[in-house]
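Can anyone check this?
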Amino acid sequence: MKKLDIYKSHNYVLNDAFDQSVMNIHILKKQNGYKSFAICGCEAGDGSTTVAINLAASLATSGWKTILVDGDMRKNNRYKRLNESVSEGLSDYLMNRVRLEDVIYETTTENLYYLPCGELIDNPVRLLCSDKMNTVKETLNNGYDFIIYDMPAVHAAMDAEVVAVTVDAVILVSSIGKTTKKRLVAAANALTGVKANLIGTIVNKVDMKQYADFHGDYDYFQNERYIKNKSKKSSIK
């Protein structure tokens, strides 16, 4: 079976941001045993899928066996870059059409696996609440160090809330300059209202200057004056 092409970004600033998230998730795993996370935007277009992909890839490249689950069964495959070369996935398993092991794909990133959404479903809530979905979660929890569920936006559908109450923790994604404080608070209240374990928000679409202003020392070790000139030999007097 062909490996799906999922790669980790080589952008230093982006990797620095995700490395901080990986560190926080690692701490949560050590302290509380958290291993399954739902990633959802406040509203459509916040970039939660991009965040989920990069977060899963970062965990995998840190040596953790990680699986990225596309839980958005409302969007057609042709709109999803990762699903362009696959036709079956989560929805097909939940409808008893395939075996689960047949729709879990290896990727070009070591330690990273992918479970695509499968066939488009108009209203997948019943499938997400089914016993077979419980089997999916139990199987993945037993087989992987981390499970990242990429879910639709909170304000777009109730799918995110259905999954959010069954995972260890939920991370909201907001988009700077787009997501209003009111919508962010409403999304957070929707999740906490169903007793989901909301642990924080990732602010997406921040430009480099904004990131540098917020994290003044993000490039401390990339600064030229801290890089040793290899052409010069050090001596002890």
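Reply from J.R.: I decoded it. Confidence is low (pLDDT under 50) at residues 217-237.
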